[in-house]
Design a protein that fits this description.
about 220 residues; alpha+beta; wza like fold; Outer membrane lipoprotein wza fold like; 3-stranded antiparallel β-sheet; about 25% helix
């Protein structure tokens, strides 16, 4: 009897030990492998392409080179010569004054054209001069807007502008403007020229080329 009881106790003890050992093994088997590396993220090539937002294509061609005007301020830089490098204003007669070469016409020329002319003139006094002309201030552009704009009168942009930009500088058109053609009066060597364009055709995208680049002295009449 005692032997049977001891055998039963031994069996129960072994059964408890087996349960205690099997439970952690099951839990460990069910848990994810901690050493396993994370799943690789899809490469950019595998991910679907997304459209690029905010990229606008060029509508208008590049502006022509700026031509110097009266009251502009220029920086004339002569390489390795600090005495000849200086800022100079364009006088009302369209000329600038520089050491050695004195007066030289600047108005109506591009900075590159003026730089080459100064370089040629300086060759009389020095060998192989290198000259660069930079426009530091633009004060010569004046455009006049009349008619159906919020603030009629002159505008003085600091760079060359197109028609819609000039109208915006004048406060935009009135509720009655833009119904008829806009007239641009421009002085040319052969006389005054009139350019007529349609505001509605420009803003609708039918004739974007009518958004012409304005020149100093142009008078724009918005109808």
């Amino acid at each position: 009897m005692i032997a049977a009881r001891e055998g039963l106790i031994r069996v129960l003890a072994l059964w408890c030990v087996w349960i205690a050992l099997s439970i952690p093994a099951q839990v460990f088997a069910a848990s994810p492998d901690q050493d396993q590396p994370p799943a690789a993220e899809p490469s950019p090539q595998e991910s679907p392409a997304k459209p690029v937002v905010g990229t606008a294509k060029e509508v208008y061609p590049a502006e022509p080179q700026y031509r110097i005007g009266v009251e502009d301020v220029l920086l004339v830089s002569v390489w390795r010569d600090a005495d000849l490098t200086r800022e100079v204003p364009v006088r009302p007669d369209g000329k600038i004054s520089l050491p050695l070469i004195q007066d030289i016409a600047a108005a109506g020329k591009t900075p590159a054209e003026l730089g080459k002319e100064i370089q040629v003139r300086l060759k009389e006094f020095m060998s192989n001069p290198s000259v660069t002309v930079v426009v530091r201030e633009i004060n010569s552009i004046k455009i006049y807007l009349l008619g159906e704009v919020a603030r009629p009168g002159p505008v003085t942009p600091k760079s060359q502008v197109r028609l819609l930009q000039a109208i915006s500088m004048a406060g935009g058109i009135t509720p009655f403007g833009g119904k008829k053609k806009i007239a641009i009066f421009r002085k040319t060597p052969s006389g005054e020229k009139v350019i007529e364009v349609s505001y509605e055709a420009i803003v609708s995208g039918k004739r974007p080329d009518d958004n012409v680049a304005l020149q100093s002295g142009d008078t724009v009449v918005v109808r």
